[in-house]
């Protein structure tokens, strides 16, 4: 799979053209997957494509969308244009709770992997210097939103002590350089890229805010899972292979990341130090996150354990790992 894929930023507008429903003999159709643009957390997907792990499982996989942000990718599921995807657990949780998409989490992709960056300015040396500053998040109800509010709360810097606005991660570094914002929190490699460009400095990484927190996950659309369970199981097996490959062959994995992000090797190596690649999903941490989203009124969930039980299905993963 070559890097030169068409980047889809207007998810529903483009992907709605692909919606045909599942015709008779749908099991012979390629599996339509999506991932996030330049998101180092998606490395397992890139490795599976590059190393032929999907083909080894007898699967035909087609990249149906490359998105700039999780909510856009979830709109692809809502439009019926995707079967499986690599995406943040935050937009997945929100979309399912708000009934805008029907997907199930089948495995984790990574934990941790985000950092809070401040502009390279004498006035922003540490967290206490953020009072009165403007900070960017990739979206409301994202894991990064939670992480930022969690650390700002510890420092008594929640709004109105600080101003929080939404920017897509690819836009954050330029905004920092232009002085439009004083800092941002995002997933890798955007924080490390800001540092290597000497636009900012790392103030704190997410492992120091919420250790081992879930981040990106592998999800399947509910109807696809119900009608093509064996293919979903094979997709998980390919994901497990790819994740193990990253952890046992970091040098080759780094080269894959360089090809898919277009970034230099130095930036990738440094950024990957902040990401833990694992397929083991932390259900308890997800419950904590659902409670946060409910507290901030992003979603309304009355029975958190029951909701989490419907959102997450790890049985296929458990069966695969037993073998």
Give the termini distance in whole angstroms.
29 Å
Q: What gyration radius follows from the Cα positions, in whole Å?
A: 19 Å
The structure class reads alpha/beta
Unreliable runs, pLDDT <50, ≥5 residues?
A: 1-27
* Number of separate strands: 12
Strand order of the largest sheet: 2-1-3-11-4
- Beta percentage is 15-25%
Order of helices and strands: HEHHEHEHEEEEHEHEHEHEHHHHEHHH
Number of domains: 2
CATH superfamily of the largest domain: Periplasmic binding protein-like II
Shape: globular
Give the SSE layout.
Elements: H1 11-15, E1 31-36, H2 43-50, H3 53-56, E2 61-67, H4 70-78, E3 84-88, H5 89-97, E4 103-108, E5 110-112, E6 114-119, E7 134-137, H6 143-154, E8 163-166, H7 169-177, E9 183-187, H8 190-196, E10 200-205, H9 206-209, E11 216-221, H10 222-227, H11 229-248, H12 250-261, H13 265-272, E12 275-277, H14 283-295, H15 304-311, H16 315-322
Parallel strand pairs: 1-2, 1-3, 7-8, 7-9
Antiparallel strand pairs: 3-11, 4-11, 5-12, 6-9, 6-10
Describe, in short, the structure shown.
The chain is built from 16 helices and 12 strands. With 323 residues, it is an alpha/beta fold.
Describe this structure in words.
This protein has 323 residues and is α/β, with parallel strands linked by helices. It has two domains: 209 residues, Periplasmic binding protein-like II (D-Maltodextrin-Binding Protein, domain 2); 96 residues, Periplasmic binding protein-like II (D-Maltodextrin-Binding Protein, domain 2, 3-Layer(aba) Sandwich), CATH 3.40.190. It contains 16 helices and twelve strands. Strands 2-1-3-11-4 form a five-stranded mixed beta sheet, sandwiched between helices. Strand 7, helix 6 and strand 8 form a beta-alpha-beta unit. The longest helix is centred in the C-terminal third of the chain and has 20 residues. The protein is globular, with a radius of gyration of 19 Å.
